[in-house]
## 1
Amino acid sequence: MNNDNRRYKTIGEVANILDLKNDNGKLNTHTIRFWEKEFNVIKPRILNSRRYYSNETIEILKNIKYLLKEKGMTIKGVKNQINLEKTTVDENGNSNIKNSQNIKIKLKKISRILKELKKY
């Protein structure tokens, strides 16, 4: 089976895919570990103290690298961009942020009603 078709890749393979190399051509795997700490969307599987990355995570890493290295964005800017991308809009034009706010409001109302009912 071709290594590129495996479900998970090691940190070295991911660094190679992302072309994260220093001037001597050595892979900079520490960059990926740093990004893991900065971006909570990067969640490798850790088995026997080794990191394994899914194709979805590799795509996220590619996006992060592009925004940082090519677009020159700051880490804070990339975090904001990722948060915007995670915001979805349903068929009625409601964003998941609005929906979560609506749920909080409804829960508060329910809590008030329950407190009132407990008085009786």
Note: Residues 89-120 form one domain.
## 2
Amino acid sequence: MRFLSILILGLTCTFALAQNKYKSVLSSIDAHQDQYQSVAQEIWSYAEMGYQEERSSALLQKTLSEEGFIIEAGVADIPTAFVASYGSGGPVIAILGEYDALPGLSQQAVPYKLSNKGKAGHACGHHLFGTASAAAAIALKNHIEKQKISGTVKYFGCPAEEGGSGKVYMTRAGLFDQVDVALHWHADSKNSASVRPALANKSAKFRFYGVSAHAAGAPEKGRSALDGVEAMNAMVNMLREHTTESTRIHYVITQGGNAPNVVPDFAEVYYYARHLTRSEVVNVFDRIVDAAKGAALGTGTTMEYEMIGGTHELLHIESLQKRMHKNLETIGGYTYSEEEKAFAEKIAKTLGAPLDTRYVEGVVPYSSNSKAGGSTDVGDVSFAVPTVGLRAATWVPGTSSHSWQAVAAGGTSIGIKGMMVAAKTLALTGMQLLDNPKAIEMATKEFLEKRGTDFKYVPMLGDRKPALNYRN
């Protein structure tokens, strides 16, 4: 009995020591909150769009370089993409970071719509994403140093997530081939680490060319490129009746002419096709292309299209996801200050719902049946390496991404508090994986079973080069 008591006491002490070694590293994240807040708010003020994130990328590279990370800049032929590495040997833990903003969503950090007099805004919280991931990477570096263990942490600076498919080019270039596990997170209005599907996506710009003429004086000589776009749109809208229920098709006319009395000789329409599986996306996209060809034939115009982006669906590894959820519960949420609550209540009024902070202060219960919403180029990473993520409450509850309300909250202490939750959850998960190779082995086994051992990666955007002149 005495031996058993000593054994239990020993195990208890060992567990406590393990928790303490994580606690000290997590505390170091809190100790540097002011620095991370400064980095995030600076990137928020830059609000640089996809592939144009020169200052944002440079700031994150500088932050990691000063902590001893080796920087490889301009990876995958993208000037604003980079990999920051620390350590040696395995396991190799990747942490993904994003930092691109969205066009047309310039907004000040106030609870009413007011432009910041810029072209873009961080309506998806990528300034927080990139910074929290850097904080977590630095925490893993500190853990490797303090525990004197083998292991490598790699921060992947990923540009142009918003439609530019930056991670697809990075995956295609083989940058994740030697990684054991990839960690990521995203801004949201709730704290959650459930299985959250993402739709596969394929996007392109369809360009129609016609013949200009005076619309009243010589209409018979004209061939309207805009007619080609409108005919295509009409056919695609009829196609919607004959697609699967979870198919999503979106478009916007980006160019349609300049004057009503001039037959447009050029017009362009930008399309997205989405579905839960990439095979169905390919099928739907091919039918959209056929509609464009028919529209050109019927209107006497010519058509060409350019692939803009394409992402795989998200492959979830449940053993990793449950670990991330447990760690998010351990870190917990946060409470609003009086000033933050007043701000949040004003935002909530613009959303037409009362303020509910349950999942700001706490965590959404774990689920394996969440509904798919948008798409992400993290999907391609998830088919290269076991990948796991979470969402943290950086916005006022009820806020949609890609909204002025998201930009506003992301520029305040509300966004920073959520960012810190994400940083610590990523760090805790990463430290556990560095210390527990068996957890990585289990995740790898599940990954290979789900993906298939004969899987061959084929990027949805083909062999095109990164669209460095891309503007979301």
Note: The two ends are 68 Å apart (CA to CA).
## 3
Amino acid sequence: MAPEWFVYMVRTSGGALYTGITTDVERRFSEHQAGAPKGARSLRGKGPLTLVFHASAGDRSRASRLEWRIKQWTRARKEALVSGRLTLPDDV
């Protein structure tokens, strides 16, 4: 059975939003918080970090498409997703 994938967003201390995918949100967030060598390079030194959003994305293919789509969004749209005023698109 294929693992369930999630899309997630992390907020840096400066307010930037990082979007990623994983099969284990807690483990991945811990890796980001710990920094090198497993955390995302773009998050290093930008803590403290806060996990602000995560949602099931189905398989890896759909998770990757959702991640790409969210990364194209404006900051306002990302903030709407984080606050619950917007949901993930179904057409991905």
Note: The two ends are 22 Å apart (CA to CA).
## 4
Amino acid sequence: MLLTCLLSIVNFFITAPPILKDTATPNVVLIFMDDMGYGDPEVYGGIPYHTPNINKLAASGMRFTNFYAAQAVCSASRAALLTGCYPNRVGISGALMPWSTVALSPKEETIASIVKTKGYATGMIGKWHLGAKAPYLPTSYGFDEYLGLPYSNDMWPVGFDGIPITDTANKKSKYPPLQLLDGFNPVMPIHNLEDQSKLTTIYTERAVKFINKNKNKPFFLYLAHSMPHVPIAVSSKYKNKSGAGLFGDLMMEIDWSIGEVMMALEKNGLTKNTLIIFTSDNGPWLTYGNHAGSTGGLREGKGSAWDGGVKVPCIMSYPGVIAPGSICNNLAATMDVLPTIAALTKTKLPDHKIDGIDIISLLTGQPNANPRDHFVYYYDNNSLKAVRQGVWKLVFAHQSQTYKATDMGKDGFPGKYASMAVPMALYDLSTDPGETLDVAKHNPAVLAALNAIADIYRTELGDDLTNKPGTQKRPAATIQ
């Protein structure tokens, strides 16, 4: 009897889910990759290069297998991450150009602005892409400091061969010079691929400096790498080191960067009180061929509403709260990061409506937890192209970019784009993650349930495919 009791006690401590810590001021490091596909990190099947530090991060925490970016494009995805809202709710769509006349509204609250109310130091490093010039840069949205590029690293007057463009007939010549900014101030021009090769190291060194500087206070660090978005470039530390081409070299350098951040936390004794989130803004830009990553077998990629475009790798580590080596198969999304951080830091949520959901119950392994019931796939300006609930994904008839009908590019040059007419179809993602087998006629009740969810969003956020305007959208800022 005594032995049975002892075994029961031991089993409880082995299997009981972790609980939240008493502290209300955990540090948060949010690492956001650009165009990293679901299949790129080694722990998601990435080959033949190795990512030991990302592997270590996964071993220390939770790897998500059904984690989604809000949309498969840069600015929209970043707006969703920082505000906890579908991007069309806050008036952001597509990828903003350097000359765009819209930006994220400063009236929107961000992760940085809400944790600042709790005394957090806040820093952003890397790609912003929610407003190209002052005052629509990170320090106007809750960040104490900023170092990075205002938009994508391919928005520059340089050809795909890395040579500056002198022919004014070339549309890329219209881009302004690309500048690394510190706050609002240009500090380094990005003239060529050699300059691009310095970015990962510059960002990493600034991240380590931020951690060292703020080790005695709670902090939020948003590290938004510019790569593996093209053009890709690596420093001499990793060039020709992977044996897997330039993309493999880049994955090794990105992994080094993650390791440097983890080491800085460890050296400062901060690992046990820090939540690290590692994820991506969307899937790979497959038209760039060997300079693009992998969807891990998912359909299509960036620029679509297929899962190859929006299902992304995500790893979260928080020792003592998230069980090491755990895997979460539940649905979750980048919009959920803001409310989850708010709950962990005991911070008040924004007063206006958001779409994110607190997923602490998933992080702590609570039995039967399923905080996110569904996810909707918007793309283009405001087209509701699909909806997912559980294992089911209903795709509505629409026009879609496709990589299937064109040749891929190579060595930094893109292939040609193509589009296709997509019919309505229902997919069971548990057996068909590649979205190839339409099972609509066998599941009328599922169709009805998913259509009902879609109608709610068409009313709130609108839908260009059905000519619904939406009643609960907020405007973006207008740049004068």
Note: The first strand starts at residue 27 and ends at 33.
